[in-house]
Amino acid sequence: MAFTQVVNFGGFAAAAREMGCSRSAVNKLVNHLEKELGVQLLYRTTRQVSPTEIGMAFYERCTAILADLEAAEAATSQRQTELRGNLRVNAPVSFGTLHLSQAIAEFIEQHPQLHVELTLNDRFVDPIEEGFDVTIRISQPPESPDMVANPLTTVPRYLCASGAYLEKYGIPTHPQDLRHHTCFHYGYLATGNPWKLTGEDGEHTICIQGNLYSNNGEVLRDAAIAGLGIVMLPEFIVGKALQQGSLQRILPNYQVPDISIWILHPISRHLSTKVRVFTEFLQAKFRDRSW
C-alpha cells in the first residue's frame, strides 16, 4: 500500500498525508519492500520520485490486486453501494461550477462514507502525475494507453451575441460576415482557432478577429452579454442567458460542431469500485441532460 501511494501521489510526503502517517514511516516501508524483493522500485531525487521500469510493472500488478480486493470486500459484505475512502476529481471550472457540483452533492448524499475532493481548473491536467482518480475532459480525450476514457455526454454549441451588440453592429446573415465582427475565442491560443459552420451551402471556415481570448467560457459569455462581441460557446454555459434573453442566437440556420465531454480515469483505477460507481452515476445523470 505504501509503495502504490507513493507512485499515485508522486512522492513520500504526499503519500504520508494520504495515509495519515509520517514521511519517514512511508520511506521505511518502501525501503523494506525493496530489500525484500531485491530490486529498486523507485528513482529518488531531491525534486521528485518516480517508478523504475521494474517498479512500474510491480505497481500495475499491485493496483490490480488492490482493486480486486476492494471489489471482493464489497461483494462479500454485500455493501457495494457503501463506498468509502477518498475520491479525487478534476474538472473544468465552468462545467464544474454550473453543473458538476450539483451532481457531486447528490452523489455524496447517496454515499456519505466517501470523501470527495473536487479540484476545478482550466489548465491541462495530467491525471496520473497529479493523482486524480477521475478527470472530466471537454473535447477529445487523450490517446494514452495509461488512461481509460468513457463518453459522458455531447453538448451543442451556439453562436451568440447580445441585442445591444447586434443593434449597434448589425446581424450577421452569412458565416463570411463574421470576418467583420468582433469574435471571442474559447481556448488558450491568442491567435484563435478558426470557426467552422455548416449549412445548406456547405462548410465554411472563418478565421475570427477579436480582442479577448480566454480558456474560461464564463468570462467570454459575460463579455458577450455586456455587448462586446460574438461568442461560440456550449449550451451548458450560455443556455440560461439564451433563455433569459440576455444573449441571442445568430446564424441559426448554420450548425457548429457539438462538443463531447469525457470522463477519464487511470487504467490502474479500472477495477476500483468507487471510480466505476461514480462514472456510472455521472453517465446516467448527464445522458439525457437538458442544459
State the gist of this model.
By secondary structure, the chain is of the alpha/beta class.
CATH class value of the largest domain: Alpha Beta
Please report which band the strand proportion falls in: under 5%, 5-15%, 15-25%, 25-35%, 35-45% or over 45%.
Answer: 15-25%
As for the number of domains, it is 3
CATH superfamily of the largest domain: Periplasmic binding protein-like II
How big is the Rg? 23 Å
Number of E-type strands: 14
* CATH domain fold name of the largest domain: D-Maltodextrin-Binding Protein, domain 2
The helix/strand class is alpha/beta
Question: Which H/E pattern describes the elements?
Answer: HHHEEHEHEEEEHEEEEHEHEEH
Number of helices: 9
Taking the sheet with the most strands, its summary is:
5 strands, mixed
Q: Which outline best applies?
A: elongated
Describe the structure.
The protein is an alpha/beta fold. 39% of the residues lie in helices and 24% in strands. β9 and β10 (202-206) form a beta hairpin. It has helices at 2-9, 12-19, 23-37, 53-77, 93-110, 163-169, 217-225, 235-244, 273-286, and strands at 42-44, 49-51, 85-91, 114-120, 134-138, 147-155, 157-161, 183-186, 195-199, 202-206, 213-214, 230-234, 248-249, 259-266. It has a five-stranded mixed β-sheet with strand order 4-3-5-14-6, with helices on one face. Strands 11-8-12-7-13 form a five-stranded mixed β-sheet. Strands 1-2 form a two-stranded antiparallel ribbon. It folds into three domains: 1-80, Arc Repressor Mutant, subunit A, CATH 1.10.10.10; 83-151 and 259-291, 3-Layer(aba) Sandwich (D-Maltodextrin-Binding Protein, domain 2), CATH 3.40.190.10; 157-257, 3-Layer(aba) Sandwich (D-Maltodextrin-Binding Protein, domain 2), CATH 3.40.190. The model has no long low-confidence stretch (mean pLDDT 86). The protein is built from nine helices and 14 strands.
